[in-house]
Write a structure and sequence with these properties.
Layout (H helix, E strand, L loop, with lengths): L1 H6 L4 H9 L6 H11 L2 H4 L11 H6 L10
Length: 70
């Protein structure tokens, strides 16, 4: 249990609270534990690639505007 808690970046006490199903545990602690178990892909869909683009990538791919338009 200590090794699992260490890999999930949570305390042993927090891991025990997760196992008991206590409601006061932060959602991020649950997500860390799920990531260690490698079940995140089974539970959540990956975001569409277009959502992962940066603002600069989006601006770079905009169609050019004719200067005479303005």
């Amino acid at each position: 249990m200590r090794d699992f808690a260490y890999r999930a970046c949570i305390s042993l006490n927090t891991l025990q609270r997760i196992e008991r199903g206590e409601h006061s545990v932060l959602a991020s602690n649950y997500l860390n534990a799920l990531a260690v178990l490698r079940v995140m892909d089974k539970l959540f869909k990956r975001p569409d690639e277009s959502l992962l683009k940066t603002k600069d990538d989006i601006l770079r791919n905009l169609p050019s505007i004719d200067d005479e338009y303005f």
